[in-house]
Amino acid sequence: MDWGPISEWAAAVAELLAVSVALFLPYYTEHRKEKRKIRNLRVAINHLSQQALAGEKDAVVTLEIFLNVSFLTTSSTEAEQLIVAGRLILDSIKALPDKHMESYSAAVQKINKLVAAVNTPKHRTFTKR
Q1: Segment 113-124, tens digit of pLDDT
Q2: Is residue 127 part of a domain?
Q3: Per-residue model confidence as pLDDT tens digits over 3-34
Q4: Where does the chain cross the membrane (predicted)?
Q5: What's the domain range around 18?
Q6: Are 52 and 115 in contact, with CB atoms under 8 Å apart?
Q7: Residue 77 lies in a domain
Q8: Is residue 83 within 8 Å of residue 67, measured between CB atoms?
Q9: How many domains does one find in the chain?
């Protein structure tokens, strides 16, 4: 039985690896792109929320526009969940009482908890089978 020269085997293995990379690479790049989008969404919601709580009026409008545009361009469920959480934060910021009222600090604490929840990424757990 003749198995052929080693050079043919090496070429076949290299070709198999090249095809595998060519098939896998688009999925991997799309995954990284989606993770980057999620990270940027978290950072933007956090930053704009903190600016809005600091009293910048433009931050509220910017956050609302950002959430609307993000909703129209997203395709992942995780991004949609972040946008819904961002909407909740935005609505809470818009409903903030006057700074001199007693309920103001409790409302700000509630908003800060919502922002902290947005900043906490959900980790997947892998189990051995």
Answers
A1: 999 988 887 644
A2: no
A3: 778 899 999 999 999 999 999 999 999 999 99
A4: 6-29
A5: 12-119
A6: no
A7: yes
A8: yes
A9: 1
pTM of this structure: 0.74
**Residue whose C-alpha is closest to residue 70's, from 48, 52, 50, 53:** 48
H/E/C letters for each residue in the chain? CCCCCHHHHHHHHHHHHHHHHHHHHHHHHHHHHHHHHHHHHHHHHHHHHHHHHCCCHHHHHHHHHHHHHHHHHCCCHHHHHHHHHHHHHHHHHHCCCCCCCCHHHHHHHHHHHHHHHHHCCCCCCCCCC
pLDDT in tens, 95-112: 988 888 888 889 999 999
Q: pLDDT over 70 for what percent of the chain?
A: 93
Provide the sign of the torsion angle of the four alpha carbons 94, 67, 89, 59, taken in this order: negative
Neighbour-count burial of 7, counting CB atoms closer than 10 A to its CB (0-12 exposed, 13-18 middle, 19+ buried): exposed
- Does 41 reside within a domain? yes
Six token digits for residue 6 = 């080693």
Other CB atoms within 10 Å distance of the CB of residue 19: 10
How many CB atoms are located within 10 Å of the residue 88 CB?
14
